[in-house]
Design goal:
The complex is a heterodimer of chains A (966) and B (94). With 966 residues, chain A is α+β, with helices and mostly antiparallel strands. Chain A folds into six domains: 95 residues, 2Fe-2S iron-sulphur cluster binding domain, sarcosine oxidase, alpha subunit, N-terminal domain (Ubiquitin-like (UB roll), Roll), CATH 3.10.20; 187 residues, FAD/NAD(P)-binding domain; 184 residues, FAD/NAD(P)-binding domain; 150 residues, Gyrase A, domain 2; 89 residues, Aminomethyltransferase beta-barrel domains (Alpha-Beta Plaits, 2-Layer Sandwich); 100 residues, Aminomethyltransferase beta-barrel domains (Elongation Factor Tu (Ef-tu), domain 3, Beta Barrel), CATH 2.40.30.110. Chain A contains 21 helices and 51 strands. In chain A, the strands form 14 sheets. A six-stranded mixed sheet of chain A has the order 42-43-44-41-35-45. In chain A, strands 47-50-51-46-49-48 form a six-stranded antiparallel sheet, with helices on one face. A five-stranded mixed sheet of chain A has the order 2-1-7-5-6, covered by helices on one side. In chain A, strand 9, helix 5 and strand 10 form a beta-alpha-beta unit. Chain B has 94 residues and is an alpha+beta fold. Chain B has one domain: 2-Layer Sandwich (Folate-binding fold), CATH 3.30.2270.10. Chain B contains two helices and six strands, in the order βββαβββα. Classes of the chains: A alpha+beta (966), B alpha+beta (94). Chains A and B meet through helix 18 of A and helix 1 and helix 2 of B.
């Protein structure tokens, strides 16, 4: 059977044949077809199963409003679920599959839900799966999710790329039907920069689906000629396959362009889709209108579709949806379908016009429409054998984008529809049927006038003649008949009964009705069903439709692939990291790396024979403490601070004092937040009278700089102080251990003996003539320096140090050994700088000077933060050296029950210390400074462990600091 | 949103970091004001539905702190000033 339902005409290229499959069966179509039009041309009406009842469904529409014909396209990493067959452009080799059915589309076992529909009414889940509570997550929800679903994802990585882009123009025209084309033409001829975007692959909108003339040509030919003229204009950008998704603030619109969705595989170097951000102070919404159906019993069978879509398939795609067709309408527009189909030679066997008192009350045909039951004005009924029925309940202007800033649409009784209201997005006008102007002439005229008004053009552009028929409609929302179900929202299986139930249970506000029944909450967002639902609610409650109102419209206009939103931010690109100057050296050694903040740092550097990470880390620690170790500390934030007020500025931002620091010295600085909690720490050196160099933690490099700029600009605007971040400018290495000085002395040009460069000294030096900075500071507790050279020399400096350090068995240590040594020394870091701890908690309370104003000084004195029995930093060591500690364990007195009331504090950082020979930890313990020497339990209820510990000083290594000064 | 930077012209809001109420400029003097005054400064904010003066930092730009007068309901931006100028006008100096 090859294209049995193809008829003459249409805008398809019959000279080329495209082959495709649906559920594995082969079919043929032509360029210009959608998947839906090609399947209909092959006599296939059944394309999907409904969400809840698994009812057999075919396409309701011919556009993006489609609720039913959702399919999976492609396979593997390119598999895409929930694609509307009505907008999927056909290409050769397309493989599509139906979804939400098992084992097959024609026989779906879960169609049993349809028989059990009495149990599945609105609110069913809320009422039924209440008890027992614990069953929801483990039992009910998984079963419901499996039964009620849409398509599936392949779980393979998408091989295609997605891009983001930015565009600017004088006028954005949304939609390229008669109004949009005329608006773009008017603006384009005036020389303005215009973007014309349309979700369809062919411009023209309804002109392609109708038989009207525009001027002397057919509507479709006029559209093609206009597009040709627009494409010759360098100031006009035509964007087909581009859906404008939403209106955002200040003239920003988002749009998704499906660059390659109509191809089997994107062309080389081309993305699959592009998410555009379009900046335009002026825009015109020419989004057209969407036809709505009428609710009657069993109005959801394959073969029943919108009347305008029925004739679109015939006029645009040369497809008859059936052999014997009927039309059910409440307005004149539906009659056009009968006329157009008859002109195409399709047999129209009945026209049921509700304005004459005739109604369709029921239908038959399980997998496809077989007949309709008509009740005439006298009340007599007859069954009419048909295989296609076009239904028209009127047209709803697509006001969505105009309502994205909460503008409420207003009811226009003459067309029985909502039209755009006041207070839409500034700069956005509406034209054509989106504004409720339904004739072709009206669309052309309002499109032209909107362009003139938006851009302040003078003179009037020529406009072709076109039909200007008035609207004649008598609203009919649903047919009153028996007890069967009449569908409103076909995608979420919401029926008239569900609206009645919502009313009965007092969910009468439209927002409540929506959430109770799920009307309009499916992927089509109720484009065809919402207005019917609220009109029925209005009837039931005795309110008018405007009184009942609409729900909010929100972006996106149609569903967007997550890939388009992610763009290039995938995998490693989601959060790129920077490489340290020593990275390449470390990689050559087979180092293991770890992400720290925005950086990739060396975690440890294994030597031959080491099979387990602790072997490497323990060796690095011991080698450093025995002789000398080198660590790349470039990642610490570095801020140069200069100006005559630099010292005074530091006194304000640090809790301790820096204005008294001698030139050539550095000092540990503690920075508080205004609420008195510790923000950051680091050392700051005075390099000159008015010149300091601050270091911050790696994690807070950006936020400290931001905070300093705030202080400088907003709090003390007249201070003479300038800041610049030099984090990336300097490669910095820590050189630590008893032989640190001997090694460095071989490399630097100046005398760095203890006398010439004492503990906490700082200065500008040279390394083989190259400018460098040296700081005698220590994080490890050993004799240590940090040496900085311009970043591009970092790799060379490390290689020099390793070469010169060979006689000392110098090693490079990573972040793990760094962490071990700082915990052994009792320095606070990540686990202690947790955003909840004060200087007092850290045992650094005396550092907060009360003699000067500084950020956080006042509030750090609050009663709650100065409790003498508050948390204090302590060390903890297992009584049994083989005992294991876990960070996050809680301190408990011996014999105390493990309940919150007895909680004494927690272990904030834990390592194995090769120096001590056991696990050690830092922690916060209530009144901890008075508990040194006591024995407690470290209890971890999550891991189910408990260890007896001795509370000790946090300084496990060299508590007197003799090594530092050596 | 688009913020009209007084020096750099219209800039996308993505280039900025938001802090909050511009009242944060009015920091009390720690040597004279007490805990009460600092408590009010650090924690108490008006949360108006309507016009709001707020601090934005041009982090992906020239590092200016700006005071933006924005309607929180419509997002309309009425005024953009350099925070430094605002601070000086409010009598802040060193």
């Amino acid at each position: 059977m090859s294209q049995s339902h193809r008829i003459d005409g249409g805008q398809i290229d019959r000279s080329k044949t495209l082959r495709f499959t649906f559920d594995g069966l082969p079919y043929q179509g032509h360029p210009g077809d959608t998947l839906a039009s090609a399947l209909l041309a092959n006599g296939v009406r059944l394309m999907g199963r409904s969400f809840k009842y698994h009812r057999p469904r075919g396409p309701l529409s011919s556009g993006s409003e489609e609720p039913n014909a959702l399919v999976e396209l492609r396979s593997g990493g390119r598999q895409e679920p929930n694609t509307r067959a009505t907008v999927a452009e056909l290409f050769d080799g397309l493989a599509a599959n139906s979804q939400n059915r098992w084992p097959s589309l024609r026989f779906d076992a879960l169609a049993i839900n349809d028989r059990l529909n009495a149990f599945f009414a609105a609110g069913f889940y809320y009422k039924t799966f209440m008890w027992p509570k614990s069953f929801w997550e483990k039992l009910y929800e998984p079963i419901i999710r499996r039964a009620a679903g849409l398509g599936s994802v392949s779980r393979e990585e998408d091989p295609d790329s997605y891009d983001k882009g930015f565009l600017h123009c004088d006028l954005l025209v949304i939609g390229a039907g008669p109004a949009g084309l005329m608006a773009a033409l008017t603006a384009g001829r005036a020389g303005k920069r215009v973007i014309l975007a349309d979700e369809d692959f062919a411009f023209g909108g309804r002109l392609n689906a109708e038989t009207y003339a525009v001027g002397q040509a057919s509507g479709a030919d006029w559209a093609a000629a206009t597009v040709a003229e627009l494409s010759s204009m360098p100031n006009v950008r035509l964007m087909a396959r581009t859906t404008v998704l939403g209106a955002f603030d200040h003239g920003i619109y988002s749009a998704v362009e499906r660059v390659s969705d109509h191809l089997a595989v994107p062309a080389v170097g081309k993305p699959r889709q592009v998410l555009w951000r379009i900046y335009s102070q002026r825009a015109i919404l020419c989004g057209g209108a969407t036809e709505r159906p009428i609710a009657f019993e069993n109005n959801d069978r394959p073969g029943i579709m919108l009347a305008g879509s029925l004739r679109a398939y015939a006029n645009r795609w040369g497809v008859k949806a059936g052999e014997r067709v009927a039309v059910f309408t409440n307005n004149d527009d539906g009659l056009r379908t009968a006329a157009d189909l008859t002109a195409k030679g399709v047999e129209v066997v009945a026209v049921i016009d509700s304005r004459q008192g005739d109604e369709v009350i029921d239908t038959s045909g399980r997998l496809g429409l077989k007949s309709i039951t008509v009740r005439d004005r006298e009340g007599g009924t007859r069954e009419v054998r048909v295989d296609a029925l076009g239904v028209s309940g009127g047209w709803n202007p697509n006001v969505n984008i105009h309502s994205h800033h909460r503008s409420r649409p207003v009811w226009d009784a003459t067309i029985a529809a909502f039209v755009p209201g006041a207070d839409g997005p500034p700069g956005l006008l509406v034209a054509g049927s989106a504004a409720g102007v339904m004739s072709t002439h009206g669309a052309l005229r309002t499109g032209r006038d909107a362009a003139i008004a938006a851009l302040g053009l003078t003179g009037r552009a020529d406009m072709p003649e076109a039909e200007d028929a008035p609207i004649s409609i008598t609203p009919l929302w649903h047919v009153t008949h028996g007890k069967g179900r009449a569908w409103i929202d076909q995608q979420n299986d919401v029926t008239v009964k569900d609206i009645k139930l919502a009313e009965q249970e007092n969910f009468t506000s439209v927002e409540h009705m929506k959430r109770y029944t799920t009307l309009g909450m499916a992927t089509d967002q109720g484009k065809t069903g919402n207005v019917i639902g609220l009109a029925i609610m209005a009837e039931l409650t005795g309110r008018s439709i405007p009184e009942t109102g609409t729900t909010m419209y929100r972006p996106p206009y149609t569903p967007v692939a997550l890939g388009a939103l992610a763009g290039r931010s995938r995998g490693k690109e989601f959060k790129p990291y920077r490489l340290t100057p020593s990275h390449h050296w470390a990689a050559e050694q087979g180092a293991t790396f770890v992400e720290v903040g925005n950086w990739l740092r060396t975690q440890w550097v294994p030597k031959a024979g080491e099979t387990e990470w602790r072997q490497s880390v323990d060796r690095e620690v011991l080698a450093t403490r025995k002789s000398v170790g080198i660590c790349d500390v470039t990642t610490l934030g570095k801020i140069d601070i200069q100006g005559t007020d630099a010292g005074a500025f530091l006194d304000r931002v640090y809790a301790n004092t820096f204005s008294t620091l001698p030139v050539g010295k550095c000092r540990y600085g503690l920075m508080l937040r205004e609420d008195g909690i510790v923000f950051d720490d680091g050392t700051t050196a005075r390099m000159g009278e008015h010149e300091y160099v601050m270091t911050t933690t790696t994690a807070n490099a950006v936020t400290v700089f931001r905070h300093l700029e705030f202080c400088r600009q907003c709090l003390w605007p007249d201070m003479d102080v300038q800041l610049i971040s030099t984090t990336e400018a300097w490669a910095q290495f820590s050189v630590a251990g008893p032989n640190a000085r001997k090694l460095l002395q071989k490399v630097v040009d100046q005398d760095i003996s203890d006398a010439a460069f004492p503990y906490m000294g700082a200065g500008n030096i040279t390394v083989g003539g190259l400018r460098a900075r040296l700081f005698r500071i220590s994080f490890s507790g050993e004799l240590a320096y940090e040496i900085a050279v311009p970043t591009r020399y970092g790799d060379a400096l490390l290689r020099r140090l390793m070469e010169q350090g060979a006689e000392f068995d110098a090693i490079v240590y990573g972040t793990e050994a760094l962490g071990v040594m700082r915990i052994e020394k009792g320095h606070v870091a990540g686990g202690e700088l947790n955003g909840q701890s004060t200087a007092l908690n850290m045992g650094l309370g005396k550092m907060v000077s009360k003699k000067k104003d500084s950020i956080g000084m006042v509030l750090s004195q609050r009663e709650g933060l100065t409790d003498p029995n508050g948390y204090r930093l302590v060390g903890a060591r297992p009584v049994d050296p083989k005992g294991k500690l876990t960070a996050g364990s809680h301190f408990l007195e011996i014999g105390a029950a493990p309940v919150a009331a007895n909680d004494g504090g927690w272990l904030s950082s834990k390592v194995y210390s090769p120096h001590v020979g056991s696990d050690i930890a830092l922690g916060y313990l209530k009144g901890g400074d008075q508990k040194i020497g006591q024995r407690m339990r470290a209890v971890n209820l999550v891991g189910g462990t408990e260890t007896l510990v001795d509370i000790v000083s946090p300084h496990f290594v060299d508590p007197e600091g003799e090594r530092l000064r050596g | 949103m688009i913020i009209h930077h007084p020096i750099l012209g219209p800039r996308d809001a993505q280039e900025f970091v938001y802090l909050g109420d511009a009242g944060l400029i009015n920091r009390p003097d720690g040597m004279t004001a007490g805990i009460e005054a600092f408590h009010d400064y650090a924690y108490n904010r008006d949360n108006p539905a309507g016009e709001h003066r707020e601090l934005w930092y041009h982090e992906q730009g020239d590092r200016s702190w700006l005071v933006v007068t924005r309607n929180t309901v419509t997002h309309e931006i009425k005024k953009v000033e350099l925070a430094r100028d605002v601070a000086r006008a409010q009598g802040r100096s060193k």
